[in-house]
Amino acid sequence: METIKNPVYIDVLIPLMVIIFIIGVGVVLLYQHFQKNLFIHKLKQETLKANYHNDLLRSNIKAEEEERKRIAQDLHDEMGAVLSIMRMNLVLLEHKASRLMCHLPRDLKMCASLPRMPLPVCAISVTGSCPRNWRPSAWLKPWKP
Length: 145
Hints:
Layout: H1 2-99, H2 104-111, H3 119-133, H4 137-140
Helix pairs in contact: 1-2, 1-3
């Protein structure tokens, strides 16, 4: 009779072991699937972060290029006006000098100055004051992360 009891245990143990094995394989497969999804999610986050940094870098470069263009335009406009005045006064001086050689020293002083400031000093002060006006408006706003 003992021989009959052993096959009953074996008949119960084998299917139970198969079920436990199937559950174990299922748990391992689910674990691998979740790890794969987690890896994909982290990869997407890193890609988004890298794209954000690239966009930020591009926008900074674009802002710098626009600022350089604006600085060049401001410098051209300011210095061009001062140098044009100097040139006009020199042409006027040449014209007067060719007609009247006796008033040359007085006309030289007039040519070298504006109402309150000599032209070269005015040109230097324009180049000194331009950088204060060249700050982009974005720099004046408080930074918000």
